[in-house]
Design goal:
By secondary structure, the chain is mostly helical. 75% of the residues lie in helices and 0% in strands. The two termini are 29 Å apart.
């Protein structure tokens, strides 16, 4: 199985690149473009782009599974492994939202980031040193995996939040821009923003619980780690944003700003931990 890993490493950026090209065609050919999309645009964009994205996600899963079997642990032991897993998370969350909402014109704002992440991971990750001893026991592996997936979901939520605010600005200014004509309604972007945030909230909550399990087995004190408190603070802010949408009736920019505030808190906590604070979560 190890013989297929270099092939999969090379194949992943190719598949994501083809998927990005397809979603670019979708974006250009959507309503607002003069006339309906032609047969070539329709076949390559609307038909082939989702198929290529699904193929890329499945190949990505096969790649990570093969790495896990060969190496004996989840492939999350280096910065480049983290990048690859984060790219998969972004792609999977976007694909989930696309299937649920039936909107494809927003893929151009998510998938190029996935492509860039995977290019870097494939190009530089092969010879990168790993931290295998730190990935035991299984509690820590699950903690790391759910945390990466949660970060990816929150990143997608933030992208949709920014798209919402840009479209809201165009509507307030009564501007019928190229961007305006290709975006779904504000309500749909709001739902996609909060749906991705809800998925991230669940995954990050699981990561926190798995971290507690690992810490108890490893004899590590979570209460003395600043990253623990920063992550909990971000989780509470994001939890309030999701709760406000479903229970308090928050809609529009107020709900989006709440979710972006939670994501910003999460990212700042990551940088603060790596650059300024002493934490066993520091990862380089």
């Amino acid at each position: 199985m190890s013989a297929f890993i270099p092939l999969l490493t090379t194949l992943l950026p190719v598949l994501y690149g083809l998927a990005v090209a397809g979603y670019v065609r979708i974006y250009v050919a959507e309503p607002g473009h003069p006339g309906p999309p032609g047969p070539e645009e329709e076949s390559f964009g609307h038909h082939w782009a989702p198929i290529l994205l699904r193929a890329a996600v499945l190949t990505h899963l096969l790649y990570l599974t093969s790495r896990g079997i060969v190496e004996g642990h989840l492939p999350l032991a280096s910065v480049y492994d983290f990048l690859s897993a984060t790219g998969l998370s972004l792609a999977a969350v976007y694909l989930y939202l696309e299937l649920r909402q039936g909107i494809r014109t927003t893929g151009i704002f998510v998938l190029p980031l996935v492509l860039l992440i995977q290019i870097v991971s494939s190009a530089y990750g092969a010879g990168a040193p790993t931290l295998e001893p730190q990935l035991q026991p299984i509690w820590f592996e699950l903690h790391t995996l759910t945390a990466v997936l949660g970060y990816g979901a929150f990143a997608v939520s933030a992208i949709y939040g920014i798209l919402f605010l840009l479209l809201y600005r165009d509507i307030k200014a009564n501007r019928m821009t190229f961007f305006f004509r290709r975006m779904p309604p504000l309500e749909t972007l709001g739902r996609m923003n909060v749906s991705a945030a809800g998925a991230g909230l669940l995954l990050l909550g699981l990561a926190i619980l798995m971290g507690v399990g690992w810490a108890r087995l490893a004899g590590v004190s979570l209460l003395s780690d600043p990253k623990t408190w920063l992550t909990l603070a971000a989780w509470l802010v994001l939890g309030f944003a999701v709760l406000a949408y479903y229970r308090l009736g928050w809609r529009g920019p107020r709900a989006v700003y709440a979710s972006l505030a939670g994501f910003t808190t999460l990212i700042l906590s990551r940088f603060a931990t790596d650059l300024f604070l002493q934490s066993f979560h520091t990862f380089r």
